[in-house]
Specification:
The structure is a single chain. The chain is elongated. It has 14 helices and eleven strands. The two termini are 26 Å apart. The strands form three sheets. A six-stranded parallel β-sheet has the order 3-2-1-4-5-6, sandwiched between helices. The protein is α/β, with parallel strands linked by helices and 388 residues long. It folds into two domains: 10-206 and 330-383, Crotonobetainyl-coa:carnitine coa-transferase, domain 1 (Rossmann fold), CATH 3.40.50; 232-321, 2-Layer Sandwich (formyl-coa transferase, domain 3), CATH 3.30.1540.10.
Length: 388
Amino acid sequence: MSTGPLAGITVLEVAGIGPGPFCGMMLADMGADVIRIDRAGSVKTGDDERDPNTPPLDVLARGRRSLGVDLKHADGVEAVLKLVEKADVIIEGFRPGVMERLGLGPDVCLARNGKLIYGRMTGWGQEGPMAQAAGHDINYIALAGALEPIGRQGQNPVPPLNLVGDFGGGGMLLAFGIACALTERASSGKGQVVDAAMVDGASTLMAFFHGMKAMGGHGDGGRGTNILDSGAHFYDTYETSDGKFISIGSIEPQFYAELMEKLGLADDEKLTHQMDKSGWPLMKARFETLFKTQTRDQWCKLMEGTDICFAPVLAMDEVAEHPHIKARNTYVERYGLMQPAPSPRFGRTEPTLGNPPAHAGQHTDELLEGFGFSADEIAKLRDGKAIA
């Protein structure tokens, strides 16, 4: 039985890529019963291709059961609508209008279930001049003003993987919106549409910097000249003698003082004041030389756990072995794969990892039976190729 604060909530996830599956993972991690509606054409027929003992390696797909449906088949659409009647949430990530053309738009679904939360995940939003244009994370965060500030002085903006648009400003935004809509439904008894657009979410993530810019604390000198964008010597990464890296974030005066003391620079009267930007390039060059005198582990021994605001820059395959990460069980090994544990944590309704990632259509019969379909109805749907 599922545990977590969303236990008892049923979510239908129309299979997609990136932010939609991430939202589904977040909801499943919190205990929701997330049912992924996969395309019938993606269902494999070979026993070795759908062996539950060898689940897919897609971490974003964990915690779900999968139903294979042909959404271009009228009977397949009707089958999904019958699931909608008993579901709490449906999420989809198509371009605007696709679900409507399939016969699964919000008007149709809410007519079947007035309490349904209908989550929509797009890059540009449901309306606007660019709503129908193709795009990816890099484009959405570019238009939101979240890409231009990231990078070093005199260099191109640097894509921060697809963390800002797809995940932070996309999937997590949709999960938050759904949680809000479920909370509101508890008092109103009514469902509604949640329109989560990555261009909106990435813009929201920039709120702090708009405030900083208005106060003159960020942006006047351009990219890579400010405290938080690699301009400051006390907020950056540095290479160590073994070719690895460490991170320094000594913004506050007392933390900076401890950093300078550990580096043996506390009594050097020739050094400029911490916030004197004219001295930052020279101080950065000095830091670069100093940090290359020892290995990353040596710097960890000297600085880790202090108030310097220090941490080693770990590669993905190093993270799970760090003592702090191990102590908190931030990473867990499940289904033969090391992966992040569910977060955040709760005092009473602690979530746990659910099912391993499912093969497409792995649970079709089981799910339809659970929603009240008879064996004859399931056989008819399969014979008509509406399900797989």
